[in-house]
Amino acid sequence: VQLQASGGGLVQAGGSLRLSCVxxxxxxxxxxxxxxxxxxxxxxxxxxxxxxxSSGGSTDYADSVKGRFTISRNNSRKTIYLxxxxxxxxxxxxxxCRSDTFGWxxxxxxxxxx
Length: 114
What we know:
- The chain is mainly β.
- It is 4% helix and 52% strand.
- The chain has 1 helix and 11 strands, in the order E-E-E-H-E-E-E-E-E-E-E-E.
- Strand 4 (36-41) and strand 5 (48-53) form a beta hairpin.
- The longest helix is centred in the first third of the chain and has 4 residues, at 28-31.
- The mean pLDDT is 95.
């Protein structure tokens, strides 16, 4: 199973992006129970948790993104999303998705210009 993240890019401050992460090669019975997360790592910083969604749909967010980012999942598509609004330059980082079942995916770069 591979986690494939996409949707990153360059956006101006105040703009929006939607990241997607699909668990290719997985089957519904293994994807659905999995807690899925988005992490990010800015240059020179440690990787940090951005948002997490449980199998039941419960969500947690880092304080720095609460009210601006929304994590969601579509089990039938074996995909999670991160809707990012009101982006700030400090949101610039490589964003990674992670599954407690399948591990880490490759990142997607998000760059927010001021």
